[in-house]
Specification:
61 residues, mainly alpha, 84% helix, DNA binding
């Protein structure tokens, strides 16, 4: 999972996101990876990602 997180962080850096945004997005993405597990991560659909993203936003509001 560390390799996936590293690649995701590099993508955020390439997009020139601020450090704070990188930290928050990486935290959410790590939760997402842990929620689905490494094997299921590759099978995740866009809808599942959006549903979890909405859930995480609602939890922090």
């Amino acid at each position: 999972m560390e390799e996936v997180l590293r690649r995701y962080k590099n993508l955020l850096i390439q997009k020139r996101y601020s450090q704070n945004t990188q930290d928050i997005y990486c935290s959410y993405f790590k939760n997402f990876c842990m929620f689905f597990g490494e094997e299921e991560l590759e099978k995740s659909t866009t809808k599942q990602i959006q549903t979890l993203g909405g859930s995480l936003r609602n939890d922090t509001a």
